[in-house]
Amino acid sequence: MTTETLMSFGLELGWILLQILAVAVPLLIGVAYLTLAERRVIGFMQLRKGPNVVGPFGLFQPFADALKLMAKETILPAGADKVVFIIAPMLTFVLALVAWAVIPFGEGLVLADINVGILYLFAISSLGVYGIIMAGWASNSKYAFLGALRSAAQMVSYEVSMGLVIINVLLCVGSLNLTAIVEAQRGMWFALPLFPMFIVFFISTLAETNRAPFDLPEGESELVAGYFVEYSSMSFALFFLGEYANMILMSGMTVVLFLGGWLPPLDIYPLNLVPGPIWFILKICLVLFVFLWMRATTPRYRYDQLMRLGWKIFLPFSLIYVVATAGVLLAFDMLPVVAG
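Above: the chain sequence. Below: its structure as tokens.
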């Protein structure tokens, strides 16, 4: 290889790394402050203050928590499969980050604008269950293993409904490209014509991320924190960060699929002067607030209620809605024309 080729390759690799850092660093900061936001929001809803001591208004609390976890000792259970035990939290955290490669933050602002972006997102989000199963199995604890089995059943159950909901969106767009899905919502966000599917998708994201009222894999009353009960120090922190990164990811998916991505609510002055990435971030914050609101106000489901909701209500309802959406689009000659 010539010197010019090596320099060109180095510059291209440096530019790619810079783009990845431009996405990953704000995301990690967002994850840190989401933990603070959750404690503050739930505190206000429960008529208490929440963290407000470390730094002005408690803004340095996430850094204090990180420092505390880094200073703790990592304990490996005697009977654990040590390699799998260590890999599991790393896998959970990494999968929550790599999914952002196809999320468009604005017009042309996306790391990889691939034609099958929605399939990539769905595949990466589905792989998240592997980290949890590996953690439960490698811990050599019946409580952790039961939590992992619960999580696997729960995530697989609600991914079926999420897949059918996404088919409704794809029928309206005619493309698997996430940028095309956002552009198709210039006249009207899909949350309006597909409102029942929007609600089903949001509830399914709660179950997919093991959030209240579906936080059964880590039910403290019977499983003593569930699949990560044997974890400590930074390995526990990676699970913790992975959960919150998944919350942000699912909020981003909700915004892209149903809330117009980076598009303003109305294409009028002065709303259309606000940059697209700002609208995208504001919408994600709104969806995350509802995540926190649900945790503060809803009691935990029983496991049989969770499975009944997923398989006996959401699955048939989503399937019927797919048929109805296709029928309406065909009857009114509104099916999108796919190029090529």
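The radius of gyration is 21 Å.
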